[in-house]
Design a protein that fits this description.
Blueprint lengths: L22 H17 L7
């Protein structure tokens, strides 16, 4: 099987850019994204 590299840059925002993520919630969301990526062998590039 060949080697494939795909770069994804995802940006999320709320309607009217209202701030809804407190520091604690933001930390949990980022932890969830990292853990999901780890489980699927997705890694962060340079």
């Amino acid at each position: 099987m060949g080697y494939l590299k795909i770069w994804v840059h995802a940006v999320w925002t709320t309607k009217y850019r209202n701030k809804v993520l407190t520091k604690d919630i933001r930390r949990l969301v980022f932890e969830h994204i990292r853990e999901n990526a780890r489980q699927k062998n997705i890694y962060r590039g340079q």
